[in-house]
Design brief:
2 copies of one chain form a homodimer. Chain A is about 40% helix and about 15% strand. By secondary structure, chain A is of the alpha/beta class. Chain A has an 8-stranded mixed beta sheet, sandwiched between helices. In chain A, α1 packs across α13. The radius of gyration of chain A is 17 Å and the shape is globular. Chain A starts with a strand and ends in a 7-residue tail after the last helix. At the A-B interface, α2, α8, α10 and α11 of A face α2, α8, α10 and α11 of B. The site of one magnesium ion has 5 residues of chain A, from α1. One magnesium ion (MG) binds next to α1 of chain B.
């Protein structure tokens, strides 16, 4: 199973939208996917029209150790399952502050469960706290949605530093798969400058022993497309809501870029 | 001095852009403003081209009690001052977890300082943790930037609940000034639906004893405008970078809506 943490501490860059629709795109191409909501906002959960308060346990209970993994998995269709969450997850940061190896709880819970999926995608909150660290310790790969804006660029360095620390101390297999430009508006000078900045940074790292030495900016850009913003209000993925839209096209193209196993050169 | 917390736990809805450019718009109209960065991402600080590591203390030191208020204030021009921050502020959540009345530290530090400004605007991180609580205890009014998307709507109820709790227990004068639609794209069905939802909620609360009984959606919508996303890369406000742009127009119009004191009916 390929397991990917979708993260960026910058808010509103398309983490949830990417986790849902990349997962759905991989499913369209025949893969079996499990999507995990690690954001107390529970937007991945809401995106599937799930009521976070319906009593089904989720990532909060997994981290608190009060539920079995099998009881937390909701089947959406034959290829997509979801582990949802609710706002109580926000308390995890303080509740786990003094727990030994608090970053490893999710990894240990999920690995004990022997999950039978092709892909696991984890949606992270806009922060680099204990919830995101649990995702980084569980995942083997990191996918970073990026809005090609100046403010969007600010935190990327710190994001890489955090990934490096986790790789050094807790999860040696962790690598950065790549960055995907989202809400992309072609042709603006700003976007071109940001892409150049990131490209230069990645090229300079090619021969260094860092988790992002094989990372790249995916050639697929997720274009700004209102259908992507509308689909969660119907509890649907972009493929169920607007299968012929740019949004559906772009996420299918992104899935195609991910599908051949990424072999290091 | 009118003091406003600019917040919404949803990421990427224009909190920083609004704090900077509404502050600048109020300054354009003659007011003296102080802008406070309470987000560890330090994007307000970066927006003014300030190097967060230049050694000048900021909100982290204020909360830790290791610097005097007067040493934290940076003068940008004759009408705008900034209290910046740096990434270390992210540690405040855990460092203050056991401090008595941790939500009131900023309020007490700023009120002891006898600030001489017309407006204070505080930029909050995308969460409702201790940093945002400090802003809510310091402010008298709350301004909520909102993107008219389904996911953007999810957390508004909880945001109001948090404001109500703070008003009840810690800051009885706290009221919700209103919501401002940002990155607005006219004419989409989604936007109209979201606006209707929020309007209905606010109208129903008119006669209730809640902090948002006088709140409204500002008639000024901040239109999506790439100049707003470009200006921080030059360390400038929209008025310095593109004074004739939609962005400048919209923030001036928003300032005009704020300027007559909001008298309860
Ligand atoms: N390509 C796109 N085109 C148009 N709208 C989009 C696109 N991608 C995401 N959106 C919308 O933009 C908003 C932000 O996206 P999303 O919530 O997925 O970001 P996020 O990074 O998960 O945010 P947060 O930091 O709050 O978790 C949402 O309302 C979403 O519906
Ligand atoms: N009206 C607008 N038109 C175009 N771009 C905008 C507009 N307002 C903000 N932006 C851009 O959108 C991105 C998100 O805005 P901003 O960073 O101000 O949101 P935020 O709520 O402060 O995010 P965070 O939750 O990460 O603190 C930024 O890159 C900003 O430059
Ligand atoms: Mg999200
Ligand atoms: Mg911000």
């Amino acid at each position: 199973m390929r397991s990917i943490a979708v993260l960026n501490q910058k808010g509103g860059v398309g983490k949830t939208t990417t986790t849902v629709n990349l997962g759905a795109a991989l499913a369209e191409r025949g893969a079996k996917c499990i999507l995990v909501d690690l954001d107390p906002q529970a937007h991945l959960t809401a995106h599937f029209g799930i009521d976070p308060k319906d009593g089904t346990p989720g990532t909060y209970e997994l981290l608190a150790g009060t539920a079995e993994l099998k009881d937390c998995i909701r089947t959406i269709d034959k290829r997509i399952s979801v582990i949802g969450t609710r706002i109580d997850l926000a308390a995890a940061e303080v509740e786990l502050a003094n727990t030994i190896a608090r970053e490893l709880i999710l990894r240990d819970t999920l690995s004990a469960g022997n999950l039978k999926y092709d892909w696991m995608l984890m949606d992270c909150p806009p922060s680099l706290g204990v919830l995101t660290l649990n995702a980084l310790c569980t995942a083997r790969e990191v996918l970073i949605p990026l809005q090609a804006h100046f403010l969007g660029l600010q935190g990327v360095g710190r994001l890489f530093e955090t990934v490096q620390l986790v790789a050094k101390r807790l999860n040696p297999e962790l690598t950065v798969l790549g960055l995907v430009l989202s809400m992309h508006e072609k042709g603006t000078r700003l976007a071109a400058e940001v892409v150049d900045d990131v490209d230069r940074f990645l090229t300079e790292s090619r021969n260094q022993d860092v988790p992002w030495r094989h990372a790249r900016i995916f050639s697929t850009r997720i274009r700004r497309n209102v259908k992507l913003a509308e689909s969660p209000s119907y509890g649907k993925t972009i493929f169920q809501y607007a299968p012929k839209s740019h949004g559906a096209e772009d996420y299918l193209a992104l899935a195609a870029e991910l599908l051949p196993p990424v072999k290091p050169e």
